[in-house]
Design goal:
407 residues; alpha+beta; OB fold (Dihydrolipoamide Acetyltransferase, E2P); Chloramphenicol Acetyltransferase; 2 domains; seven-stranded mixed beta sheet; 19 strands; elongated
């Protein structure tokens, strides 16, 4: 008999804090190689941990709710031993014991037999029938992403059963009542710690410019149908990314990381896009290698990652390796936000405010004239250890010129 350690992959969660969310099998249960046996939740996504070998699950399992690190051993599998009667699996305090998981989907498949605690909780909160959801996990298992995608597609009008359920459990999207105490979920705790660490680490300075959207609005109107035929939604953010590439090429130190003894300037421009998930928090999927992408390539990548972000289908690598970040805070109505907290260990972050029509002065035929234009404020918040004001202004000057002179 051989003991095989269950190790959290270094590659799956590089540089990310995460929590052991659930065990999908009980100690003593038979497992196949690559069969999902545990579920871990990072500050952004939920992932399955596959079995590193076939055998029976040991009883030395790390407790649910424990914070674990990449490379950490969280349990073991006894190889070459027949399955014994399973004992109780570790459970969170608010969950009923999980039913044994089936290895394969068959004609008599009952989805509830293979649901992780987090999936069962989500189904209960939204009064969803698992039999109506197609699982995309290994062997047809229903994942959190499957449930969220089903909820997003479902009609908005609540059914009688969902109304009854809402009396028992208030969905997170409903207004918060005064006097409540809402426990922090792992994502909110991670965001708070990340923001606090950034403010404590870097001296923040913000420069603000104004930009006219006229040129990109005309170009978008001309090209958006062509992009749609290629399954790409042409948004203003695609133009923002393209302009960031030009501005970073003009001021390469913006695309850098501070070290105590040196400044690391990155050759690739990997731009993260802050994507709000409503009350669920914020994720920052990354457009990698933006310097090598056309506007259409950027739009295709954006369409993919933002769609998957809102369906909770991002992979860890989709949010790793960012070298610069854009916060399009204007979509929620703000004109200016300052300082926008830098996404450490990056050196700067761009903020784009609300687009609105304003009266501005333009020179027409040699005379100053009042013209109504679609305008927005754009800001660059920088790590003052890395960048000074003149570099921030040079970056924003190039960015604005690219947007206003788009051809």
């Amino acid at each position: 008999m051989t003991q095989i350690d269950i190790i959290v992959s270094e590659g799956e969660a590089e540089g990310t804090r995460f929590t052991l969310r659930a065990w999908l099998k009980s100690p003593g249960s038979a497992v196949d190689v690559d069969e999902p046996i545990a579920e871990i939740e990072t500050d952004k996504v939920t992932m399955e941990v596959p079995a590193p070998g076939a055998g029976t699950l040991g009883d030395n399992l790390t407790a649910v709710g424990t914070e674990v690190e990449p490379g950490m051993v969280i349990g073991s599998i006894k190889s070459g031993e027949s399955a014994s009667k399973p004992s109780a699996a570790p459970q969170s305090s608010d969950e009923a014991p999980a039913k044994p998981a089936r290895a394969k989907k068959d004609q008599n498949f009952d989805p509830e037999l293979r649901l992780s605690p987090s999936v069962r909780r989500l189904l209960s909160e939204h009064d969803c029938d698992p039999a109506q959801i197609t699982g995309t996990g290994r062997g047809g298992r229903i994942t959190r992403a499957d449930v969220l995608a089903y909820i997003e597609r479902a009609p908005s009008a609540p059914s009688p059963s969902s109304k009854a359920q809402s009396a028992k459990s208030q969905p997170p999207s409903q207004p918060v009542k005064f006097g409540q105490k809402i426990p922090h979920d792992p994502m909110r705790r991670a965001i708070a710690e990340h923001m606090q660490r950034s403010v404590s680490t870097a001296p923040h300075v913000t420069a603000v410019f104004e930009v006219d959207f006229t040129a990109i609005m005309r170009d978008r109107e001309r090209q958006k149908e062509t992009f749609q035929r290629h399954n790409a939604k042409l948004t203003y953010t695609a133009y923002f990314i393209a302009a960031c590439v030009k501005a970073i090429q003009a001021v390469p130190t913006v695309n850098s990381r501070w070290h105590d003894d040196e400044l690391e300037i990155f050759p690739d421009i990997n731009i993260g896009i802050g994507t709000a998930l409503g009350d669920k928090g914020l994720v920052v999927p990354v457009v990698h290698g933006a310097q090598d992408l056309s506007l259409q390539g950027i739009a295709e990548r954006l369409t993919d990652i933002t769609t998957r972000a809102r369906a909770n289908q991002l992979r860890p690598k989709d949010m790793q390796g960012g070298t610069f970040t854009i916060s399009n805070h204007g979509v929620s109505g703000s004109l200016v936000a300052t300082p926008i907290i830098i996404n450490q260990p990056q050196s700067a972050i761009l903020g784009v405010g609300k687009l609105e029509k304003r009266v501005v002065v333009r020179e027409l035929d040699g005379h100053d004239s009042l013209v109504i234009c679609p305008m927005a404020y754009v800001s660059l918040t920088l790590d003052h250890r890395v960048l000074d004001g003149h570099q921030a202004n040079a970056f924003l000057t190039t960015w604005v010129e690219t947007i206003e002179g788009w051809k």
